[in-house]
Amino acid sequence: MNLADMIEGHVDDRVALISRNRETTYGELRDQVARLRGGLSSAGVGQGDRVAIMCGNNRYFVITYLATIGIGAVAVPLNPASPAHELEDQLATVEPTTVVVGPTAMNSWARVDRSMIPCVERVVIAEGEPDGDVLTIADLLRSDPAPLVDVEPDHLAVLIFTSGTAGRSKAAMLSHGNLASNIEQGSTVTDRTRAGDVVYSVLPMFHIFGLNVALGVSLSVGATVLLVQRFDPATAVQSIVQRQVTVVPGAPPMWIAFSHFDELPPDAFASVRLPLSGASRLAPAVADRMEEKFGLTILEGYGLTEASPVVTNSIESGRRAGSVGRVLGTQEVRLVDDDGNDVPVGDAGEIRIKGPNVFLGYWNDQEATDRVLVDGWLHTGDVGVVDDEGFLYLVDRAKDLIIVSGFNVFPAEVEEVLASHPAVAEAGVLGVPHPHDGEAVKAYVVLADGASADEDQLVEHCLDYMARYKCPSKIVFVDELPRNPAGKLMRRELEGTILA
């Protein structure tokens, strides 16, 4: 097998990619990927070698990714906008022999200290003139085509850095079998992405949601992927209308921006049949606004890098407010208490997952691997509740739990209540030390454009929906919340946000 065979078998003249308004058909894509396989092999890249890919969402990323895994090498997608010290740390961690640098990453790469990464034998640039040890993708594409290399399902395909919301980012090892099985698990859903769909792909490809859902699932079924490098709500809607986009996977910040974009006409999303949300919890108030304003029912799912990534979705079941849907495919999911015992239906417990999509572990970090992989079960650290019909509801991350006078407070619950206030665009909540109660609830709030509210008004709003101990004792108004590139809230960085 080889995961890269996802592009095989589709009609030659069907459009596979749209990047910078340039269309690439499946026939052209297969030819380019085969030639780049040949070019990388001729340059000395072999099975097991790590290839760091510093590209935005563009054609260069896609062909490099598919060619890399196609020869049995290991793709390492990196954020092209990361600061130099972060790139140096990640590159030193995975020790790539090759770094591929896209146009948007040239400035970041120029600031990287090459002496920190002596493992790098060759640099490939997507555009520009070669210099010294630098090659170009154009040169490599002149090579003779090379065939796909057959590998075992447990052969390492991708090293992808986790989002880091619960601590230092680690490189998760995902095999060909892991990624392919999650794509296959999604194929059991009736109204899934299919050939003929146009998929709006703004989720970054260095994040697993963008890599194996927006890209992997789409290419495997022969859909067209509209590659978008940066999000702007006005431009996004224009593209969705002009390209008649049918599938829109996104993180909550995208849907928040759309929901507060009052200038949009009611039919702005008329072509969209699958509006998907993941990466973090979507506040029900945001989903309600999208439904009221545009008639768009957002279908929420749950996943994580270590599960390749999708664990549950709502595509087949339909939206149920607050739920992330039902378990996908052949995966097993348990909710357990602190002693590892299954909790009763309706009680909160840590989510644990078993299935062929569960990752191999963390690169060169056996201690961290042993903490999360126990007897084949992935310990997610996420807390959830399941109802009688099998719908999963996320509560929060166990590490983010706030304990006020002995009572548990999950930040996400407070965030959702705050976000339901019409003046609030989004909110972030964390626990802070309190001399008498142990911890207190502190909230950071971004107001909607043109809206106004003060601390007392929002606290009163919370008191209408929650017990007093769950309500914020302090609310700080800020310009924006700290989020990682995939849109996930970084609660541990809230204290450093800029005041509004």
TrEMBL record:
It comes from the Bacteria. Signal peptide: none annotated. Pfam families: AMP-binding (PF00501), AMP-binding_C (PF13193). InterPro entries: AMP-bd_C, AMP-bd_C_sf, AMP-dep_synth/lig_dom, ANL_N_sf. Residues 413-488 form the AMP-binding enzyme C-terminal domain. Residues 11-363 form the AMP-dependent synthetase/ligase domain. Keywords: Ligase. One of its GO terms (molecular function) is CoA-ligase activity. PANTHER family: AMP-BINDING DOMAIN-CONTAINING PROTEIN-RELATED, LONG-CHAIN-FATTY-ACID--COA LIGASE. Belongs to the ATP-dependent AMP-binding enzyme family. This is Long-chain acyl-CoA synthetase. It comes from Ilumatobacter fluminis. The lineage of its organism: Bacteria, Bacillati, Actinomycetota, Acidimicrobiia, Acidimicrobiales.
